C-alpha cells in the first residue's frame, strides 16, 4: 500500500528526534520519517501501540521506559494504544526463556490487569489513551482463524529466533503453543492497524512478526522502536522484582527517593535519559556541570525529586528529600561504597551485617545494635531480630563503615 509523499520539514525532523531519544533501534527510520511527515501534512495522528502482558500486578520504573516514550509521542499529538494482553498472557511469552513459561490462569490475568492501567496512567495521559484488550479479536478467531493465521508464517522464520534456536540445539523442549505467541502479538498489530509498535530490546523478534503479518494482510507495515532494558539499583541486572533491584512506581515516596539516591553516579545518566522528562539539552548541561566539579549527589537529588513528584506530588518529593537529609545529618554518606550482593532474602540483620563485612561476628553485630550504632537507609536499628526483605539498602555501622547491600530472594 503506497502512501502519499509529504515533505520532511524541520518540524518532522524535531518529531523524529523525540522518537529516537534514548531508543535502542528504530526500524525503519526512513519509513517512520515518512509516516511522521504524512501525519503532519494531513493532521491524521499515527497509531502507536504498546502491548503489556499483566504477568504481575505492579509496574516498576523499568516498565516506564517504554511508557515514557509513549507519553512523548502522545504529547506530539499521536494516538497511543495501551494494549493489555489478556489473551496472550494465557500463552506465556517465551522471549529470552530457556524453558517453557507456565501460562497464567484467567483469574490471575484479571487480577493483575486491574492495577496495570491505573499505574500506567501515572505516566500516560488517560484522556488521550486508547485502552484495548487483545481477547477482543483473538477469542473470535477460533480454531479455523488460528490455523489460517498460522499459515501466513513459516517454521523456518520462527526458528530464526535466537532463544528458540538455542533451545532446539540444546535439546530443550519447545511447545507448539510457544510459536503462537509471536503470531498472536503480531496479529494485534493487524487488528489495531498500528503505525508504530514499541517494546524492549528483548521483544524485537515479536515486533518484526507484526510487521510481516501486516504485509500479509495488505496493510502498510508498522515501524518498530525498541527501548533499552533499564538496569536496577544494583547497576548490574535489568530491573526486576525477582532480583530485588526494582523501584516500584507505587512505593512510598521515602523508599522511592532513597532507592534513586542509591544508584551509582554513572547509572544516574542512563536514568536521566530514559526516565526524566527534562530535555536532552538540560541533561547535557547537568553533565557539564558535574564534569566541571559540581557534586553528582545534587544532580541525583534533582532526578529523585522529579520521579517522586511524578508518581506522588511535588510536596511528597520535597518532604522525602527533607527526611532523607535529616536521617543522614549525623554523618556524610560516601559517594563510593562497597556494593554487596547477598542471596537468601529475607535475612536477619545480624547475618546481613556479617556477610556484608561490616562486622566480624554476630556478637559484634548485636553489640553495635545495642549501642545504637547501626542504620539502614539512615534509620537507627534497635531490633536485633529484624528481617530484611529483598531490596537494596545503604547499611551503616558506626560513623565510617558503609555498604550498599542488595538482598536477592
UniProtKB/TrEMBL annotation:
Domain RNA-binding S4: 347-408
Biological process annotations from GO: tyrosyl-tRNA aminoacylation
Residues reported in the UniProt entry to bind ATP: 241
Gene Ontology CC terms: cytosol
Gene3D superfamilies xref list: HUPs, RNA-binding S4 domain, Tyrosyl-Transfer RNA Synthetase
Database matches in SUPFAM superfamilies: Alpha-L RNA-binding motif, Nucleotidylyl transferase
GO molecular function: ATP binding; RNA binding; tyrosine-tRNA ligase activity
Signal sequence, renumbered to the chain: none
Enzyme Commission code(s) on record: 6.1.1.1
Reaction catalysis annotation: tRNA(Tyr) + L-tyrosine + ATP = L-tyrosyl-tRNA(Tyr) + AMP + diphosphate + H(+)
HAMAP family linked: Tyr_tRNA_synth_type2
Family of this protein: Belongs to the class-I aminoacyl-tRNA synthetase family. TyrS type 2 subfamily.
Complex formation: Homodimer.
Stated name of the protein: Tyrosine--tRNA ligase
Taxonomic source organism: Eoetvoesiella caeni
Top-level taxonomy: Bacteria, Pseudomonadati, Pseudomonadota, Betaproteobacteria, Burkholderiales
